[in-house]
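Notes taken during the Thursday session

The instructor put the following on the board and asked us to keep it in front of us for the whole hour. The protein is H(+)-exporting diphosphatase. We were told not to look anything up and to reason only from what is written here. First, the residues (694 in total):
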Amino acid sequence: MSLVDEIIVPCCAIGLLAAFAQFLIIRKISLTPNGQDLSKSLTSGDAPEKLVPEIYAKIMDGAIQFIKVEYAICCLFCVLFSGVIYGLVSWGTKSHTQGALTAGAFLTGAFTSMLCGFLGMMIATFSNARTTLACAHKGYTEGFNTAFRGGSVMGYALCSLGVFVLWVLLTFYRKVYPEADDWEILFDCAAGYGLGGSTVAMFGRVGGGIYTKAADVGADLVGKVVAGLDEDDPNNPATIADNVGDNVGDIAGMGADLFGSFAESTCAALVIAAAAVEGSNNTLSAAGWDAMLFPVAISAAGIVICILCGFFATNISPVKVEADIEKVLKIQMVLTAILMLPVIYYLAVLLLPEHFRLEGVRLTESGHQAKIHGSPFKAFICATMGCVGGLIIGLVTEYFTSHSFIPTRELASACKFGTAVNIIQGLALGYKSCIVPVFVLSSAIFVSFQLCDLYGIALAALGMLATLSCGLTIDGFGPISDNAGGIAEMALFNPEVRRRTDALDAAGNTTAAIGKGFAIGSAALVSLALYGAFVIRLRVKTGVNILEPTTFAFLIIGCMIPYWFAALTMKSVGKAAGEMVAEVQRQFSMKDSKGKTLLTGSTELKPDSKTCIQISTQASIREMVAPACLVILSPLAAGTFFGVQAVFGLLTGSLGSSVQLAISMSNSGGAWDNCKKFIKNGFSDDVELLGIGH
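Then, after some discussion, the predicted structure tokens were revealed:
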């Protein structure tokens, strides 16, 4: 094994062992505790404990039902699309070997992404009921630790599997192309791994997102707004579907999304690094395998750093009171980012040559492509810009979405003046929250590009994703806590238990927004890096000129694509939520033999959650087709009918407009959610707001 292999493999093994160890700790919490003294718990008798396993089983069954249907469609699409990849690559390169290897990498990335999403969803569902019981019997400390450990299992396992499978793939492909002169072809073939991960991520985010929002909106509209029920009231048949949605959308979907970003950024860095430089032997390929796999080593080392920092949250400085929750999560973000910096520098000095040259996309004054001179220190600065930039984006997201800070509290105060004022201020909050992240991303892009051209931007993306295990941990923490609160409500636990889970959930809403911020920021950098790799592989000698009529025209079209995509998904949510509303109203209107309904205390009628789950499942699978086709087919259509300049414009426009749209939507939603909890749970001293909450 080479030096870089000795770094990557042990780090992945440690990550998988840590994930399994955390799982064993969670498993110690039994859903049916026998002989346990519950006299000091917050439950009224043992009735809630008896309901928890039943509710847990319904959520688990619903999640598995959806994921089976979604992944069956993903498998069919990926197999068919791999055939298209094989044909196109074989035809373009005149090599069936390259076609087969690229298609194989695509399928490997797709199935790895599905495996990671499935494992994340299963452990999140496994942890939710146990978090409820931990909050009921042990308080904030065990409740927080259970939810945090559930998220960490997903984070450690996903990152370890993603890095290890990529390492195995590259090692196998190296057997086919052992010579350094052929590594450019090798990494071109391996780039299919990133495409496979991103393809599944698209299905996971779109399908899972439609599912969870349709169930959420449907349950809230009829249950809370019309019938006046509490959130997650057991009489509302849509509450189980709502809790299932948290797992399939915010866990499996987000896990696949961030896996796709990691895979794409790594593959982009490898493709750019392997690009041959005319007239120079001082390239990364010439420096050897260790230098080429420097990007993979960053991700592997990040797993171990995140594991070490995880002990701080659960053992060294655990949560003891409600106020500690957000503080501990914030320390996790800051600590992992700080500790990653010296590790990245050490890896750069250890693996990279003192000086190396890269092929750039910038043009010299004479009109030729510039040759970029790189060094370990320059590579370290590029990765640092991404790592620190991700931290800043996370902290800014927390500021705008947490009810501990002014923006969300101002949004809550706006409720005193009506719904319209609240909506206006919520939209303004989202737009304002874009300012700092955009400047941070722009700064990272400028500095990285100046130092190492497109390779620098790919390293910046990897630097932002270096703490991915931590990001996934705190991102998974939110949906687990949200489910725990729902189970507490449905199992009729004492209101204090729900208060505890809501405190975790409020922090979880913020961490979910932070996770989306990381995903958006890294996706922006990854997209630019892939765009650059695309330009380099085409050997475009004149650069990309946006004043070219075709390019500029499609730039405008590209700016519109994210809005088109958002319109399709939002309309799909509306249609699916409408079906859910109709079903819940039908069940509420049914009467038993005594003329009573679910809302008037019928003992004969039971909420039919299975029908609601089927509605969300069928609607999300049906409605995700159009947005998916838009994303996949638009660049293919532009390139086929209008040429490569049209693709340049389309990609540039889409990248430019999608960042702001995504950040504003994510932060507005997170702030509104925490605004609701701020009012409902009486965190405010404002008497008028307390009146609204009750």
